[in-house]
Write a structure and sequence with these properties.
Rossmann fold; alpha/beta; eight-stranded mixed β-sheet; globular; 15 strands; seven-stranded mixed β-sheet; 2 domains; 16% strand
Length: 370
Amino acid sequence: MIVGVPKEIKTDEYRVSMTPAGVHDLVTRGHKVLLEDLAGEGSGIPNQDYLEQGAEIVSRQEIFAQSEMIVKVKEPLPEEYGLLREGQILYTYLHLAPAPELTQALLDQKIVGIAYETVQLPDRSLPLLIPMSEVAGRMAIHEGAKYLERENGGRGILLGGVPGVDPGHVVIIGGGIVGANAAKMAIGTGAQVTLLDINLPRLRYLDDIHGSRLKTLMSNRFNLLESLRTADLVIGAILIPGARAPRLITREMLTHMQKGSVVVDVGIDQGGLLETSRPTTHSDPIFEVEGVIHYCVANMPGALARTSTFALTNATFPYALALAEKGYRKAMKEDPALRAGLNVCLGAITHPEVAKALGKEFTPAEKFCR
């Protein structure tokens, strides 16, 4: 198979979808890897490292024109829509539920779109989302702490406090991978940490790990509003695979929060947890609504590109290799986890939550695995 690795063009995105080790494994198995010039530069991987493993450096146009499978990190941008070809496999993060224009473009081009974020194991875990959720969860605390500084518009709060002064209050909404990693980092600073979730067994698990250092609450509107009133930093960390993020915090609720508090909406790539959220970039990361600072960067791990690239490709490459070796139909027929990653295929929406979010017809992925 001819596998294409284009350079990411999303603003402030420095990750790359394949490392030289991945190129080595594909080439030694008889596949061909086309790499765009300087695709790995943002992650500190020079062209030469790829060339030594057998990759070919070609133009972006050649990658899209020749490749049977395009492996990316982030979703295609409008200037890339016209480069995609019918029947081409696109293997990347897609986040289609809040993106009707992108979804329609992939349907019109009859793309085989396999989304990292919906590949799901039998235990319902999301193996290709976990590494970036780990990065984003940990990163959310130090980004939030930065914007709590007075010069950045925040309340001027040190999360850990000092002797004789109260620590900051961190509220985490969601106890999954992002929330658990945010809690670990927040507890490490010495902050007062509250975590809300609707999953009681998950709350018990986190309570067993952290004990009295973490306050756990059942997530409901009353507990959420009471927590927001005293929060200095709020981390939005809820994900429903394939679906749009639930809007749990309304604009009216912001009026009850302390002026200069910060919300880091990690769920922004699925539409965001706040009614007032909108995607931002690393070069322009924040905005203020009702006196509350919103940090809504849609590709948070892109700032920590080298760590993120290696963490991501450790998880994504085995599936890329299976797709290259077997083709998408056989690979997905043999692996239900990979089949769950199929979001669009040859003009059909094949993930139920994407279809539901966009109000379109759903076609089971199994139809394309025979």
